[in-house]
């Protein structure tokens, strides 16, 4: 099955010949593909009562727009909903200011102790690596002490103290989209 997928991607031009030759096909979508099956009905977009929109002032006069969604989903389902319903993605967090603002809103607007943000932790060659799904720089982190590293886990923001934890990606949590 994977061979057919690789060939299809190559024919569509989504994978370069160099990547195929060197075997560098990234495993980015494997967890998503395992979880979001083709032909499965997509969940409806969150209603106004299940979500809360907010803006956060940032550096250099930029304004960031977010929506906190109280409808619990797995990490990849939440990412799909962010893309489809808000034309965005799970939030990447680049400062303590933004992290604290998102924590406060999530604590007030959700009924859970954690919410998904857009980070993924993977292990390659005995080395742990965290990254944002929007591919922005990993220039800020606020990990909880004693946080257990797991192979291919997703990042959740704790609504009590604002620290981050690695959580199994199939766990159903509220989430924060950035758009």
Shape: globular
Question: Distance between termini?
Answer: 34 Å
Sheet with most strands:
4 strands, antiparallel
Number of DSSP strand runs: 8
What's the arrangement of strands in the largest beta sheet?
A: 1-2-8-3
| Count of discrete structural domains | 2
- Which segments are poorly predicted (pLDDT under 50) over 5 or more consecutive residues? 1-31
Reading off the top of the CATH hierarchy, the class of the largest domain is best stated as Alpha Beta
How helical, in percent, are the residues?
25-40%
Outline of the structure:
The protein has helices at 2-12, 17-22, 30-35, 75-86, 96-109; strands spanning 51-57, 63-73, 89-90, 114-124, 127-132, 153-158, 164-167, 173-178. Helices cover 27% and strands 30% of the residues. The longest helix has 14 residues, at 96-109.
Structure notes:
The structure is a single chain. With 179 residues, the protein is of the alpha+beta class. The chain folds into 2 domains: 2-34, no CATH class; 49-178, Mannose-Binding Protein A, Chain A (Roll), CATH 3.10.100.10. It contains 5 helices and 8 strands. The chain has helices at 2-12, 17-22, 30-35, 75-86, 96-109, and strands spanning 51-57, 63-73, 89-90, 114-124, 127-132, 153-158, 164-167, 173-178. Strands 1-2-8-3 form a 4-stranded antiparallel beta sheet, sandwiched between helices. It has a 4-stranded antiparallel beta sheet with strand order 5-4-6-7. Strand 4 and strand 5 (127-132) form a beta hairpin. The longest helix is centred in the middle third of the chain and has 14 residues, at 96-109. It is globular, with a radius of gyration of 17 Å. The two termini are 34 Å apart. Mean pLDDT is 82; it is low at 1-31.
